[in-house]
Amino acid sequence: MRQPSPTAARRAAAASASLALAAAAVACAGPQSNDEGSKGTPHKGGTLSVLNIEPQTDFDPARLYTSGGGNVPSLVFRTLTTRNRANGAAGNKVVPDLATDIGTPSKNATVWTYTLKKGLTYEDGSPITSTDIKYGIERSFAAELSGGAPYLRDWLVGGADYQGPYKDKKGLASIETPDERTIVFHLNKPEGDFPFLATGTQFAPVPQKKDDGTKYENHPVSSGPYRVISNENDGEHLVLGRNPHWSASNDSQRKAYPDRIDVRSGLDSAVINQRLSASQGADAAAVTTDTNLGPAELAKVSGDKTLAARVGTGHFGYTNYLAFNPKVKPFDNPKVREAIAYAIDRSSVINAVGGTSLAEPATTFLPNQKAFGYTPYDPFPAGKSGNPQKARQVLADAGYPHGITVTLTHANADPEAGPEIATAVQDALKKAGITVKLQGMEVNQYRDAYKSVKKEPGFFLARWGADWPSGGPFLAPIFDGRQIVKDGANFNHAQLNDPAVNKDIDAINQLTDVNAAAARWGALDKRIGEQALDVPLFHPVYKRLYGKDVKNIVIGNWTGVLDVSQVAVK
Count of domains in the chain? Predict the structure, then answer.
């Protein structure tokens, strides 16, 4: 994902090394999907509270990044397609939402056609039309409404130069609306993943007459089961009530059990977990979508079966890894990179982020989920705790029989890229004759450095998360040479521009069969992995408490967080 880290992932590694024992104690205690909190028949009524750290800012479908905000936006904004609201891997499937199906592609996947369901209406009862969806997409190109995912600008014909409807009232010719229920998209290149992109909030309908630009976020017009009652301090306190014109008959994905959704943000993580643990008053019907368990909560859960039954476990397509810049010596030598891969001790790294309940070891760049095309491989086997003997041998082959000194850049205060992980790497590499000097940076300085072709360090901690569960948005931004950005935010850290890799990416993008595409992404991941352009470390796992009166817990792998569209409260 273009953002360095979603909130969910930032919190995944929040526990320090001191949590390892407590984390291990509860590794199997929390329910994996349907759990104790799901038992009982869910029913309508009541108020669901959402307690979060980060405010639900920019509550405008044009400005939200995909389905961000822990699923809250999807309560108000329906889109052409959506994620399947199901537990685990079943939640990785794309399904129809406003459209009758997930889209009809042309033979080469450069033209996608959608038909809207009949009887769709806004919160005021007025009909939703294909023109509204076209307008909603077009306004996402306006500079004053920036912030959303950039794919449409890259994929749509004419998208790169379009400035939005406030400046160009002609609109995008590449989006056609031949009638009120049909919308057709013309793309620059084949994109088999277009149905996944169509889940993004930019595909939510916006009636042009109700659009008041940057003020639209205060009261966007709802197409979902809930409408905005109030929005205080730019999403710090967001209250949603029922949309009287929403119909469950044409929305199979959202259950809409509670009468009211009260989202309060800007809270401290310890306060959130304490309130969920105590589960008193309104907090008994509360959840969080961005706060993992911390030290005190993990310890408490380990000895309390009642609390353990109220822990939801989530998995999300995300990989934390060591990145190399082969333009910087000695990392231009593949053998040096291979030696580091052999030397890495993944067990110590995982302990540094809280233990096996919060992280799973990674030897592949692609996340360990079938939807991404996960193909198990380990080109440089290090075992659980590293292979320093093999690393020394490879290092000698590289021309460094007496060892080598390198610098590892990390953030000073970042649970996913901070000194705890860096120190674990340093200790492991020392056993292989690799002396690691640590270079800490303030978080913003660190992110600016590793995203700059000119400033990029030779060796640093990195991570990547999925915009949707497919290998495309995972591998292409990191390894497609045409996506190297020399004067902006660059994520192709290895600055790899291999014509064969680029060609393979284009060929896979033409596939509309998700299983066939996944197999090809897995094969490409393996081929790239053999070049030691990175060293995968771990895939995070999320554990979060919820209130004792919350029922029908659904945590799909698409987001890894509790789906607020499914829960019911007593």
Answer: 1
